[in-house]
Fold NYN domain-containing protein.
Amino acid sequence: MHRKNNALYIDLENIPSGLDLKMLFEELTLKHNESPEEENIFVIKMACGNSASIKKLEKQLAEYNFTIRDTPSITTNYKNRADLIISLEALETIIINTPVIDRYVFITSDSDFTVIMEALRKYGKEVYLVTKESVSDKPIFNNCCDEILIIESFMPKPKTEEPKEAEKGKVKKAEKPDAAHTKKMDLLVEDLMKKVVESFDPDAWQLVSYAGVKFHQMDKSRMIERSSYRSLGNLLSKLEQERFIERKLNEKGHPEIRKASVSVSP
C-alpha cells in the first residue's frame, strides 16, 4: 500500500458554514488516487478564522482533530491574517520536510492563497483547491492548482416538502435557473472537448484516455460532473453523433478518437 500524505487547510471565514467535513474527507480519501494501492493519510489538518467563524464548524473540527487558530481582526475593516498564517504553515512544511507532504488541500474562496499554491507546485507538490462554484472558473485559481473541488458538493441538500398546489407555479420558476445552469455546463464542456480534439493531428488517432487527460487539464473544476453528460463517455458519444469525432478500437482493444473529416452541426 502506497501512502500519500495530505495537508488540509481551512480558511474558515471564506467558506459556507454548511460545509460537511465528513463528505469532504470521504471524497478525498476514496477518490483522486493514482492507483488502488494508494492510501490517503491526513497528517496535517489546520483551520484558521475568527471566533465567530470557528464556532460555526467547531464541533466538526474537533471530531476530526483539527488544529484551530483564532485569527481576530486586526483592522477596522475586519481584515485578519488567516491567509498569511496558513501560507506560512504550508511553506514551513517544505523547509522542515518531516513528514513529507505529497498533496496540499486548501479550502477557501480567497485568491490570496494562490501565491502559496503556486509556490508549492514549484516544489513539485500536488495542490487541490476546494472553493465556491461561483469562483471556481477564475483563471487565477485554474492556473495554480491540480484539481478544483466545489464546496457546494459537500453540503447536505436541504429537505424539501411537497409543494402545495398554489405554490407549484412558483416552484417551476425556481427550477429554471438550474436547467439554464446545466445547459451552460453542457456548452462549456462541449467547447473544451472540441478544443482538445482540434489540438491533435487531424490524421492521427489518439487514445481516449489521453484525450481524457488533456480534457481534465482544462476542466479542473470538473464541470462535466455538473453537466447533463456526467461522464467523458457520454460527452464523446454526443460528439460522435454530431460527426465531430470518429471512434474505433485499436489492435489492443483500446478506444481511440480523431476529428471527423467532415463535422456536422447538430
